[in-house]
Q: What sequence folds into this?
Protein backbone atom coordinates (compact mmCIF):
# COMPACT_ATOMS: atom_id res chain seq x y z
CA UNK A 1 0.00 0.00 0.00
CA UNK A 2 1.13 3.52 -0.65
CA UNK A 3 -0.32 7.01 -0.64
CA UNK A 4 -0.48 10.02 -2.91
CA UNK A 5 0.55 8.12 -6.08
CA UNK A 6 -1.92 8.73 -8.89
CA UNK A 7 -4.40 9.63 -6.13
CA UNK A 8 -4.84 5.96 -5.18
CA UNK A 9 -5.10 4.87 -1.54
CA UNK A 10 -4.42 1.24 -2.46
CA UNK A 11 -4.38 -0.81 -5.66
CA UNK A 12 -5.50 -4.04 -4.00
CA UNK A 13 -9.16 -4.83 -4.73
CA UNK A 14 -10.03 -7.09 -1.79
CA UNK A 15 -7.11 -8.13 0.42
CA UNK A 16 -10.01 -8.85 2.81
CA UNK A 17 -13.69 -8.88 1.88
CA UNK A 18 -15.73 -7.59 4.83
CA UNK A 19 -19.51 -7.34 4.60
CA UNK A 20 -21.88 -5.30 6.76
CA UNK A 21 -25.55 -6.32 6.66
CA UNK A 22 -28.03 -3.81 8.07
CA UNK A 23 -31.77 -4.49 8.24
CA UNK A 24 -34.07 -1.73 6.98
CA UNK A 25 -36.46 -0.46 9.69
CA UNK A 26 -36.15 -3.88 11.28
CA UNK A 27 -39.02 -3.89 13.78
CA UNK A 28 -41.62 -2.61 11.33
CA UNK A 29 -40.22 -4.89 8.60
CA UNK A 30 -40.84 -7.90 10.85
CA UNK A 31 -44.42 -6.73 11.46
CA UNK A 32 -44.99 -6.35 7.71
CA UNK A 33 -43.52 -9.79 7.06
CA UNK A 34 -45.86 -11.36 9.60
CA UNK A 35 -48.90 -9.44 8.34
CA UNK A 36 -48.39 -8.61 4.62
CA UNK A 37 -51.59 -6.53 4.54
CA UNK A 38 -49.65 -3.84 6.41
CA UNK A 39 -47.28 -3.30 3.48
CA UNK A 40 -47.63 0.04 1.76
CA UNK A 41 -48.94 1.74 4.90
CA UNK A 42 -47.12 4.05 7.33
CA UNK A 43 -46.28 1.94 10.40
CA UNK A 44 -44.56 2.51 13.72
CA UNK A 45 -43.89 0.33 16.75
CA UNK A 46 -43.71 1.52 20.35
CA UNK A 47 -47.35 1.73 21.36
CA UNK A 48 -46.49 0.15 24.72
CA UNK A 49 -43.91 2.88 25.42
CA UNK A 50 -45.87 5.92 24.31
CA UNK A 51 -43.10 6.92 21.87
CA UNK A 52 -41.95 5.85 18.41
CA UNK A 53 -39.52 2.92 18.73
CA UNK A 54 -39.25 2.25 14.98
CA UNK A 55 -40.86 3.80 11.92
CA UNK A 56 -40.96 2.30 8.43
CA UNK A 57 -39.72 4.36 5.52
CA UNK A 58 -43.22 5.41 4.46
CA UNK A 59 -43.84 6.87 7.91
CA UNK A 60 -40.41 8.55 7.89
CA UNK A 61 -41.21 10.16 4.55
CA UNK A 62 -44.29 11.72 6.17
CA UNK A 63 -42.33 13.30 8.97
CA UNK A 64 -42.46 10.65 11.69
CA UNK A 65 -39.22 10.45 13.63
CA UNK A 66 -37.94 7.87 16.09
CA UNK A 67 -38.26 8.90 19.74
CA UNK A 68 -41.14 11.38 19.36
CA UNK A 69 -44.39 10.91 21.27
CA UNK A 70 -47.22 8.96 19.67
CA UNK A 71 -49.38 12.08 19.78
CA UNK A 72 -46.86 14.03 17.68
CA UNK A 73 -46.41 11.07 15.33
CA UNK A 74 -50.14 10.74 14.66
CA UNK A 75 -50.38 14.51 14.24
CA UNK A 76 -47.71 14.35 11.51
CA UNK A 77 -49.32 11.29 9.87
CA UNK A 78 -53.04 10.84 10.69
CA UNK A 79 -53.35 7.43 8.97
CA UNK A 80 -50.41 6.00 10.92
CA UNK A 81 -50.63 2.35 12.04
CA UNK A 82 -49.43 2.18 15.65
CA UNK A 83 -48.33 -1.25 16.92
CA UNK A 84 -46.96 -2.52 20.24
CA UNK A 85 -43.39 -3.82 20.02
CA UNK A 86 -43.16 -7.61 19.79
CA UNK A 87 -39.56 -8.23 20.85
CA UNK A 88 -40.08 -11.99 20.83
CA UNK A 89 -40.91 -11.77 17.14
CA UNK A 90 -37.91 -9.56 16.39
CA UNK A 91 -35.54 -11.88 18.26
CA UNK A 92 -36.70 -14.88 16.25
CA UNK A 93 -36.29 -13.00 12.97
CA UNK A 94 -32.84 -11.89 14.11
CA UNK A 95 -31.74 -15.43 14.97
CA UNK A 96 -32.99 -16.68 11.62
CA UNK A 97 -31.15 -13.92 9.77
CA UNK A 98 -27.85 -14.77 11.45
CA UNK A 99 -28.47 -18.44 10.66
CA UNK A 100 -28.93 -17.62 6.97
CA UNK A 101 -25.70 -15.62 6.91
CA UNK A 102 -23.84 -18.52 8.56
CA UNK A 103 -25.00 -20.76 5.72
CA UNK A 104 -22.60 -18.75 3.54
CA UNK A 105 -19.69 -18.09 5.92
CA UNK A 106 -18.83 -19.24 9.46
CA UNK A 107 -17.21 -15.92 10.41
CA UNK A 108 -20.21 -13.84 11.46
CA UNK A 109 -20.37 -11.17 14.17
CA UNK A 110 -23.77 -10.39 15.67
CA UNK A 111 -23.19 -6.66 15.99
CA UNK A 112 -26.74 -5.91 17.14
CA UNK A 113 -30.20 -7.45 16.81
CA UNK A 114 -30.44 -6.20 13.20
CA UNK A 115 -26.80 -5.81 12.11
CA UNK A 116 -24.09 -8.30 11.21
CA UNK A 117 -20.52 -8.25 10.01
CA UNK A 118 -19.11 -11.22 8.12
CA UNK A 119 -15.84 -12.12 6.40
CA UNK A 120 -16.00 -13.58 2.89
CA UNK A 121 -12.23 -13.64 2.31
CA UNK A 122 -11.18 -16.79 0.45
CA UNK A 123 -14.71 -17.94 -0.45
CA UNK A 124 -14.65 -17.02 -4.15
CA UNK A 125 -13.25 -20.41 -5.13
CA UNK A 126 -15.92 -22.21 -3.12
CA UNK A 127 -18.83 -20.28 -4.65
CA UNK A 128 -17.18 -19.75 -8.06
CA UNK A 129 -18.18 -16.09 -8.14
CA UNK A 130 -16.96 -12.69 -6.93
CA UNK A 131 -17.28 -11.36 -3.37
CA UNK A 132 -19.94 -8.96 -4.60
CA UNK A 133 -21.99 -11.83 -5.97
CA UNK A 134 -21.68 -13.81 -2.72
CA UNK A 135 -22.90 -10.77 -0.77
CA UNK A 136 -25.81 -10.37 -3.17
CA UNK A 137 -26.71 -14.05 -2.66
CA UNK A 138 -26.85 -13.46 1.11
CA UNK A 139 -29.03 -10.39 0.62
CA UNK A 140 -31.38 -12.27 -1.70
CA UNK A 141 -31.62 -15.28 0.65
CA UNK A 142 -32.62 -13.08 3.61
CA UNK A 143 -35.28 -11.33 1.57
CA UNK A 144 -36.64 -14.59 0.15
CA UNK A 145 -36.81 -16.51 3.44
CA UNK A 146 -37.78 -13.72 5.85
CA UNK A 147 -39.53 -11.27 3.51
CA UNK A 148 -37.54 -8.34 4.87
CA UNK A 149 -35.03 -6.13 3.08
CA UNK A 150 -31.45 -5.45 4.15
CA UNK A 151 -28.84 -2.98 2.98
CA UNK A 152 -25.42 -4.48 2.30
CA UNK A 153 -21.97 -2.93 2.18
CA UNK A 154 -18.81 -4.68 0.96
CA UNK A 155 -15.29 -3.32 1.38
CA UNK A 156 -11.89 -3.92 2.96
CA UNK A 157 -12.62 -3.23 6.67
CA UNK A 158 -15.50 -3.06 9.13
CA UNK A 159 -15.55 0.74 9.16
CA UNK A 160 -15.64 0.94 5.35
CA UNK A 161 -18.27 -1.81 5.06
CA UNK A 162 -20.54 0.02 7.52
CA UNK A 163 -20.20 3.26 5.55
CA UNK A 164 -21.09 1.34 2.38
CA UNK A 165 -24.23 -0.26 3.85
CA UNK A 166 -25.51 3.18 4.94
CA UNK A 167 -24.75 4.67 1.55
CA UNK A 168 -27.88 3.48 -0.23
CA UNK A 169 -30.78 2.66 2.11
CA UNK A 170 -33.25 1.05 2.07
CA UNK A 171 -32.68 -2.19 0.16
CA UNK A 172 -29.29 -0.97 -1.00
CA UNK A 173 -26.09 -2.65 -2.13
CA UNK A 174 -22.75 -0.81 -2.23
CA UNK A 175 -19.40 -2.48 -2.88
CA UNK A 176 -16.16 -0.50 -2.89
CA UNK A 177 -12.91 -2.35 -3.73
CA UNK A 178 -9.58 -0.88 -2.71
CA UNK A 179 -8.75 0.68 -6.07
CA UNK A 180 -11.97 2.76 -5.92
CA UNK A 181 -11.64 4.03 -2.34
CA UNK A 182 -10.15 7.35 -3.46
CA UNK A 183 -13.27 7.98 -5.56
CA UNK A 184 -15.87 6.76 -3.07
CA UNK A 185 -14.48 8.52 0.03
CA UNK A 186 -14.35 11.82 -1.82
CA UNK A 187 -18.13 12.18 -1.37
CA UNK A 188 -18.47 10.68 2.13
CA UNK A 189 -18.95 13.33 4.86
CA UNK A 190 -16.94 12.99 8.07
CA UNK A 191 -20.02 12.40 10.23
CA UNK A 192 -20.75 9.19 8.30
CA UNK A 193 -17.79 7.46 9.98
CA UNK A 194 -18.77 5.33 12.98
CA UNK A 195 -16.43 6.74 15.63
CA UNK A 196 -16.53 10.36 14.52
CA UNK A 197 -18.93 12.14 16.85
CA UNK A 198 -20.06 15.78 16.52
CA UNK A 199 -17.09 17.09 18.53
CA UNK A 200 -14.57 15.07 16.49
CA UNK A 201 -16.12 16.27 13.23
CA UNK A 202 -15.97 19.88 14.44
CA UNK A 203 -12.29 19.43 15.36
CA UNK A 204 -11.42 17.93 11.97
CA UNK A 205 -13.28 20.70 10.16
CA UNK A 206 -11.22 23.28 12.07
CA UNK A 207 -8.15 21.69 10.45
CA UNK A 208 -9.62 22.13 6.98
CA UNK A 209 -11.02 18.60 6.49
CA UNK A 210 -14.40 18.32 4.76
CA UNK A 211 -14.74 14.73 3.53
CA UNK A 212 -13.29 11.37 4.61
CA UNK A 213 -10.80 11.46 1.74
CA UNK A 214 -9.23 14.55 3.31
CA UNK A 215 -8.64 12.62 6.54
CA UNK A 216 -7.09 9.49 4.99
CA UNK A 217 -4.74 11.58 2.82
CA UNK A 218 -3.27 13.18 5.92
CA UNK A 219 -0.40 11.36 7.60
CA UNK A 220 -0.70 8.73 10.30
CA UNK A 221 1.10 11.12 12.65
CA UNK A 222 -1.55 13.77 12.04
CA UNK A 223 -4.35 11.34 12.94
CA UNK A 224 -2.53 10.26 16.09
CA UNK A 225 -1.64 13.74 17.32
CA UNK A 226 -5.20 15.01 16.79
CA UNK A 227 -7.33 12.02 17.82
CA UNK A 228 -4.98 9.65 19.63
CA UNK A 229 -5.11 5.86 19.36
CA UNK A 230 -8.70 5.74 18.07
CA UNK A 231 -7.77 8.25 15.37
CA UNK A 232 -4.90 6.07 14.12
CA UNK A 233 -7.14 2.98 14.14
CA UNK A 234 -9.86 4.71 12.11
CA UNK A 235 -7.24 6.18 9.75
CA UNK A 236 -6.04 2.64 9.04
CA UNK A 237 -9.56 1.21 8.71
CA UNK A 238 -10.56 3.95 6.27
CA UNK A 239 -7.46 3.22 4.19
CA UNK A 240 -8.51 -0.42 3.91
CA UNK A 241 -6.17 -1.78 6.59
CA UNK A 242 -8.35 -3.90 8.93
CA UNK A 243 -7.77 -3.13 12.61
CA UNK A 244 -11.06 -4.26 14.13
CA UNK A 245 -11.50 -8.01 13.81
CA UNK A 246 -14.76 -9.85 13.37
CA UNK A 247 -15.71 -11.69 16.54
CA UNK A 248 -17.80 -14.77 15.85
CA UNK A 249 -18.14 -15.65 19.53
CA UNK A 250 -21.44 -15.31 21.37
CA UNK A 251 -21.46 -12.27 23.62
CA UNK A 252 -22.19 -13.83 26.99
CA UNK A 253 -20.24 -11.44 29.20
CA UNK A 254 -22.13 -8.42 30.49
CA UNK A 255 -20.18 -5.16 30.71
CA UNK A 256 -23.26 -3.29 31.89
CA UNK A 257 -26.85 -4.09 32.82
CA UNK A 258 -29.48 -1.39 32.35
CA UNK A 259 -33.19 -1.02 33.01
CA UNK A 260 -35.26 1.98 31.94
CA UNK A 261 -38.91 2.88 32.26
CA UNK A 262 -41.00 5.42 30.36
CA UNK A 263 -44.17 6.38 32.21
CA UNK A 264 -47.30 8.15 30.99
CA UNK A 265 -48.32 10.76 31.88
CA UNK A 266 -45.13 12.57 32.86
CA UNK A 267 -44.89 13.42 36.54
CA UNK A 268 -43.25 15.96 38.85
CA UNK A 269 -44.21 13.97 41.96
CA UNK A 270 -40.92 13.19 43.68
CA UNK A 271 -42.17 10.04 45.42
CA UNK A 272 -43.59 8.68 42.15
CA UNK A 273 -40.41 9.36 40.14
CA UNK A 274 -38.32 7.86 42.94
CA UNK A 275 -40.59 4.79 42.98
CA UNK A 276 -40.08 4.26 39.24
CA UNK A 277 -36.31 4.54 39.70
CA UNK A 278 -36.31 2.06 42.58
CA UNK A 279 -38.33 -0.37 40.43
CA UNK A 280 -35.70 0.00 37.69
CA UNK A 281 -33.04 -0.84 40.25
CA UNK A 282 -34.90 -3.91 41.48
CA UNK A 283 -35.29 -5.20 37.91
CA UNK A 284 -31.61 -4.61 37.14
CA UNK A 285 -30.48 -6.52 40.24
CA UNK A 286 -32.87 -9.39 39.51
CA UNK A 287 -31.11 -9.80 36.15
CA UNK A 288 -27.71 -9.38 37.81
CA UNK A 289 -28.40 -12.23 40.25
CA UNK A 290 -29.96 -14.41 37.54
CA UNK A 291 -26.65 -14.37 35.71
CA UNK A 292 -24.68 -14.83 38.96
CA UNK A 293 -22.96 -11.45 38.76
CA UNK A 294 -22.14 -8.57 41.10
CA UNK A 295 -21.75 -4.84 40.44
CA UNK A 296 -19.63 -2.13 41.99
CA UNK A 297 -20.93 0.94 40.16
CA UNK A 298 -24.42 2.34 39.55
CA UNK A 299 -25.62 5.24 37.36
CA UNK A 300 -29.01 6.96 37.66
CA UNK A 301 -30.77 8.52 34.69
CA UNK A 302 -33.77 10.87 34.56
CA UNK A 303 -35.41 12.12 31.37
CA UNK A 304 -37.70 15.14 31.35
CA UNK A 305 -40.87 15.62 29.33
CA UNK A 306 -38.93 17.71 26.80
CA UNK A 307 -36.61 14.72 26.15
CA UNK A 308 -33.58 16.09 28.00
CA UNK A 309 -31.56 13.59 30.02
CA UNK A 310 -29.64 13.98 33.26
CA UNK A 311 -27.43 11.38 34.96
CA UNK A 312 -25.21 10.85 37.98
CA UNK A 313 -23.26 7.80 39.10
CA UNK A 314 -22.01 6.42 42.38
CA UNK A 315 -19.68 3.67 43.49
CA UNK A 316 -19.99 1.18 46.31
CA UNK A 317 -16.87 0.34 48.31
CA UNK A 318 -17.30 -3.31 47.28
CA UNK A 319 -19.09 -5.46 44.70
CA UNK A 320 -22.57 -6.71 45.53
CA UNK A 321 -25.61 -8.39 43.98
CA UNK A 322 -28.01 -7.26 46.73
CA UNK A 323 -30.52 -4.53 45.89
CA UNK A 324 -30.61 -3.43 49.51
CA UNK A 325 -26.90 -2.62 49.44
CA UNK A 326 -27.57 0.15 46.91
CA UNK A 327 -30.88 1.61 48.14
CA UNK A 328 -29.26 4.18 50.42
CA UNK A 329 -26.73 5.47 47.92
CA UNK A 330 -29.36 5.59 45.14
CA UNK A 331 -31.64 7.70 47.35
CA UNK A 332 -28.82 10.18 48.03
CA UNK A 333 -27.89 10.46 44.34
CA UNK A 334 -31.56 10.79 43.35
CA UNK A 335 -32.03 13.70 45.77
CA UNK A 336 -29.10 15.46 44.08
CA UNK A 337 -30.42 14.74 40.60
CA UNK A 338 -34.12 15.51 41.07
CA UNK A 339 -35.30 19.09 40.44
CA UNK A 340 -38.55 20.19 42.03
CA UNK A 341 -41.32 21.16 39.62
CA UNK A 342 -39.73 19.51 36.57
CA UNK A 343 -41.91 17.01 34.69
CA UNK A 344 -40.17 13.65 34.25
CA UNK A 345 -41.17 10.98 31.75
CA UNK A 346 -38.52 8.25 32.19
CA UNK A 347 -36.06 6.84 34.68
CA UNK A 348 -33.16 4.46 34.24
CA UNK A 349 -30.48 2.51 36.07
CA UNK A 350 -27.16 1.27 34.65
CA UNK A 351 -25.01 -1.20 36.59
CA UNK A 352 -21.33 -1.39 35.66
CA UNK A 353 -17.99 -2.67 36.96
CA UNK A 354 -19.58 -6.12 36.76
CA UNK A 355 -17.76 -9.20 38.04
CA UNK A 356 -18.70 -12.80 38.72
CA UNK A 357 -20.76 -13.40 41.83
CA UNK A 358 -18.60 -14.27 44.83
CA UNK A 359 -15.90 -11.75 43.99
CA UNK A 360 -14.84 -10.61 47.47
CA UNK A 361 -13.70 -7.01 47.73
CA UNK A 362 -14.80 -6.37 51.30
CA UNK A 363 -12.74 -4.12 53.53
CA UNK A 364 -11.92 -4.55 57.21
CA UNK A 365 -14.71 -2.13 58.09
CA UNK A 366 -17.52 -4.12 56.40
CA UNK A 367 -19.87 -6.24 58.50
CA UNK A 368 -19.63 -9.81 57.11
CA UNK A 369 -22.71 -10.94 59.07
CA UNK A 370 -24.85 -8.16 57.59
CA UNK A 371 -23.53 -8.88 54.09
CA UNK A 372 -24.42 -12.58 54.41
CA UNK A 373 -27.91 -11.69 55.66
CA UNK A 374 -28.49 -9.44 52.64
CA UNK A 375 -27.35 -12.22 50.30
CA UNK A 376 -29.76 -14.69 51.89
CA UNK A 377 -32.58 -12.12 51.85
CA UNK A 378 -32.03 -11.53 48.13
CA UNK A 379 -32.17 -15.27 47.42
CA UNK A 380 -35.40 -15.59 49.41
CA UNK A 381 -36.98 -12.63 47.60
CA UNK A 382 -36.00 -14.08 44.20
CA UNK A 383 -37.57 -17.42 45.10
CA UNK A 384 -40.83 -15.82 46.26
CA UNK A 385 -41.01 -13.67 43.13
CA UNK A 386 -40.30 -16.72 40.98
CA UNK A 387 -43.25 -18.54 42.51
CA UNK A 388 -45.74 -15.68 42.75
CA UNK A 389 -44.66 -13.20 40.09
CA UNK A 390 -42.00 -10.56 39.57
CA UNK A 391 -41.96 -7.79 42.20
CA UNK A 392 -44.38 -9.61 44.50
CA UNK A 393 -41.87 -8.71 47.20
CA UNK A 394 -40.41 -5.27 46.56
CA UNK A 395 -38.95 -2.20 48.23
CA UNK A 396 -41.66 -0.16 49.95
CA UNK A 397 -40.77 3.12 48.20
CA UNK A 398 -41.87 1.62 44.87
CA UNK A 399 -45.39 0.98 46.24
CA UNK A 400 -46.52 4.33 44.87
CA UNK A 401 -46.36 2.87 41.33
CA UNK A 402 -49.18 0.43 42.04
CA UNK A 403 -51.42 3.17 43.42
CA UNK A 404 -51.44 5.24 40.25
CA UNK A 405 -54.71 5.11 38.32
CA UNK A 406 -53.29 6.18 34.96
CA UNK A 407 -53.47 3.56 32.21
CA UNK A 408 -49.91 2.78 31.22
CA UNK A 409 -49.07 2.39 27.50
CA UNK A 410 -47.40 -0.95 28.32
CA UNK A 411 -50.87 -2.41 28.77
CA UNK A 412 -51.00 -2.35 24.96
CA UNK A 413 -49.68 -5.87 24.54
CA UNK A 414 -48.93 -7.84 21.39
CA UNK A 415 -51.36 -10.64 20.62
CA UNK A 416 -48.78 -13.29 21.55
CA UNK A 417 -48.77 -11.99 25.13
CA UNK A 418 -52.55 -12.13 25.30
CA UNK A 419 -53.50 -15.27 23.35
CA UNK A 420 -51.47 -17.82 25.29
CA UNK A 421 -51.22 -21.46 24.32
CA UNK A 422 -51.86 -24.16 26.89
CA UNK A 423 -48.97 -24.31 29.34
CA UNK A 424 -47.61 -20.88 28.37
CA UNK A 425 -47.22 -17.96 30.76
CA UNK A 426 -46.88 -14.22 30.13
CA UNK A 427 -43.08 -14.50 30.27
CA UNK A 428 -42.55 -18.03 28.93
CA UNK A 429 -43.95 -18.81 25.51
CA UNK A 430 -43.16 -21.09 22.60
CA UNK A 431 -41.28 -19.50 19.71
CA UNK A 432 -44.39 -19.35 17.50
CA UNK A 433 -44.91 -15.70 16.70
CA UNK A 434 -46.15 -16.17 13.13
CA UNK A 435 -49.31 -18.19 13.64
CA UNK A 436 -52.42 -17.21 15.58
CA UNK A 437 -53.20 -20.72 16.78
CA UNK A 438 -56.50 -21.36 18.55
CA UNK A 439 -56.67 -24.18 21.10
A:
Amino acid sequence: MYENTNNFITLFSYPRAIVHIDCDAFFTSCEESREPQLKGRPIITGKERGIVACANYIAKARGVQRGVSLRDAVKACPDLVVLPSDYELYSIYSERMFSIIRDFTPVVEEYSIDEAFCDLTGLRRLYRCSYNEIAKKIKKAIQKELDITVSVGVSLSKTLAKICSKHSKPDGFTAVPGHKLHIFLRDVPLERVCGFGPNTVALLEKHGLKAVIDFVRRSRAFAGSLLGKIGVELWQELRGIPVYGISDEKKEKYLTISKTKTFVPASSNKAYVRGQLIRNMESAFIKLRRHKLSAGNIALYLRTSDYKGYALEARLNRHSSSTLDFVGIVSVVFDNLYVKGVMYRATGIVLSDIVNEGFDSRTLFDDPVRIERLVRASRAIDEINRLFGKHTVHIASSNVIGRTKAKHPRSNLTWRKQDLLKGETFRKRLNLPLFKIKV
In short: Residues 1-5 have pLDDT under 50 and may be disordered. The two ends are 65 Å apart (CA to CA).
